[in-house]
Each structure stands twice: as structure tokens, then as C-alpha cells.
């Protein structure tokens, strides 16, 4: 048994329990606003990355409102981006059924979408439009799936519509991972049919790695297609700019 993974798994479990307790203690004082739920998720994410020993490097200015779109490599992206800024995620409905993590996502104000349902997409677009009026950004992964990082997949355009229609700023964010010991980024990515717990154990056993998040400029686009094309190209360029990571 890998002692590093075991130690981190125990610490992670305890940290998750503490985060849940903090959420319910807050609820005892009254219902939490959406902004307060986003702040709770940020606090929980920061605790988790500390437990896992992840070194985070933020480049650019995290937005305080509007729409944020990012490339997608792993479930770790959610933790890293949550730690960087309070935000509301848009996630596939399958995550809502995950043990613990689904509940935590819902508590943090995540919007769930059934990608096979047009009605769900319409409802989610309405929810995004409402959330864009709040001083907390909405974040989604327009590739629609996580990848091995070899390239940024074509962006789906539909969820850009609320921002384009409402004149809300859109910010591109790139995520990349730098591993120690000569390992490649894809060794940390969660893609294909790898079981979640198998991959999580592998991640917990990793000797060490850094996460680099690069935020682009906040821009308003005339339509969803222009937003999707421009942010795709911007994220691709930021991913290709391999700035050395210093601890």
C-alpha cells in the first residue's frame, strides 16, 4: 500500500468532513445566499489543495463577475478553480449522483445540466442568465468532457448565449499541471473510462505537482459563436505558453 496515498486519503476524508460540518453550522444560522455558498466552496477547495500539497500559481486577474470558460483535464480543475475565485459551476447531471461530491457541488451552488435534453439546456441557460446578475462569476467547461491535454477540443456554443445576449463579460481561463519526476501532464488527467476511485488513488500517490491557472482579459462578445471561437483560441495559446513554474 502506498503510504503517501494513504496519509493523504485520511487527511482528505477528515477535511471533507470538516467542510461539511462548517456548511451545516452556517445553515443553522439561516439559509445561505448563493454568494455565501460560493464562498463556502472556495474555502473548502483551499483546504483540500492544502491537504493534497498542490502548489497553485495564478496568472492574470480572476474575474469577479460574468462568465468564465476553461479547458478541462480532471476533476481537480474544479478544486483548483474554486480555490482561485468564488464561482458557480455548470456540471453534467451525473456528478449530482456522485457520493458526497454531488451533494457538495449542490451545496456550493452548482447548476446541473443534462446534455442529452434540450429542455435542460434551455433551463440551464435561464439559470445562467440569472446568475450573471450576481457579483460571482459562472464557470463552465465548453469542451463538454475532460481530456488528456493533448489539445483543446472544439467548444460547444450554447451556454455562451446568456452572456452574449446580456452583454456580460466573458473570461478565458487555461488550466495546466506540472508534475515532478519527469511525469507528463496526461498522467494526472482523468479521461476515457478510467474509474474515478482508481484515478483518485493514483493522484493521491503522486509525488508532487503544481497547478497553473492563467486568466485572460475580460471581454464582451457580440454573439455566442464569436465568444466560443475567441476563447478557444485564447486558451489554446495560454496552454502553449509554458512559463516556468517556481515553487
Walk me through what this model shows:
- By secondary structure, this protein is of the alpha/beta class.
- The protein contains nine helices and seven strands; from the N terminus they run ααββαβααβαβαβαβα.
- A seven-stranded mixed sheet has the order 1-7-6-2-5-3-4, sandwiched between helices.
- Helix 2 crosses helix 3 (76-84).
- The relative contact order is 0.17.
Encode the helix/strand succession as letters.
Answer: HHEEHEHHEHEHEHEH
**Proportion of beta-strand residues:** 15-25%
Structural class: alpha/beta
The geometry reads as globular
The end-to-end span amounts to: 29 Å
Task: Bin the helical content.
Answer: 40-55%
What's the topology here?
Layout: H1 3-28, H2 34-52, E1 55-59, E2 67-70, H3 76-84, E3 88-92, H4 93-96, H5 101-107, E4 111-113, H6 118-131, E5 138-140, H7 161-166, E6 170-179, H8 196-205, E7 209-219, H9 224-240
Parallel strand pairs: 1-7, 2-5, 2-6, 3-4, 3-5
Antiparallel strand pairs: 6-7
Notable characteristics:
single chain, 247 residues, alpha/beta, 7-stranded mixed sheet, 9 helices, 7 strands, globular
Question: Would you kindly provide a brief summary of this structure?
Answer:
The protein has 247 residues and is an alpha/beta fold.
Amino acid at each position: 500500500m502506498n503510504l503517501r496515498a494513504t496519509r493523504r486519503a485520511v487527511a482528505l476524508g477528515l477535511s471533507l468532513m470538516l467542510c461539511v460540518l462548517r456548511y451545516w453550522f452556517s445553515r443553522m444560522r439561516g439559509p445561505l445566499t448563493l454568494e455565501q455558498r460560493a464562498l463556502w466552496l472556495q474555502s473548502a477547495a483551499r483546504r483540500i489543495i492544502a491537504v493534497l500539497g498542490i502548489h497553485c500559481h495564478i496568472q492574470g486577474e480572476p474575474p469577479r463577475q460574468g462568465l468564465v470558460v476553461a479547458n478541462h483535464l480532471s476533476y481537480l480543475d474544479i478544486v483548483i478553480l474554486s480555490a482561485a475565485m468564488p464561482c458557480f459551476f455548470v456540471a453534467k447531471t451525473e456528478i449530482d449522483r456522485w457520493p458526497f461530491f454531488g451533494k457538495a457541488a449542490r451545496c456550493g451552488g452548482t447548476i446541473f445540466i443534462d446534455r442529452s435534453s434540450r429542455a435542460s439546456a434551455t433551463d440551464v441557460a435561464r439559470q445562467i442568465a440569472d446568475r450573471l446578475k450576481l457579483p460571482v462569476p459562472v464557470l463552465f467547461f465548453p469542451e463538454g468532457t475532460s481530456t488528456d491535454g493533448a489539445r483543446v477540443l472544439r467548444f460547444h456554443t450554447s451556454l455562451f448565449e446568456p452572456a452574449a445576449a446580456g452583454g456580460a463579460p466573458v473570461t478565458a481561463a487555461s488550466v495546466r499541471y506540472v508534475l515532478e519526476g519527469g511525469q507528463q501532464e496526461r498522467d494526472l488527467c482523468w479521461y476515457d473510462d478510467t474509474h474515478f476511485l482508481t484515478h483518485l488513488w493514483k493522484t493521491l500517490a503522486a509525488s508532487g505537482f503544481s497547478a497553473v491557472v492563467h486568466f485572460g482579459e475580460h471581454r464582451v462578445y457580440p454573439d455566442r459563436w464569436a465568444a466560443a471561437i475567441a476563447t478557444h483560441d485564447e486558451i489554446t495559446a495560454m496552454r502553449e505558453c509554458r512559463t516556468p513554474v517556481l515553487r
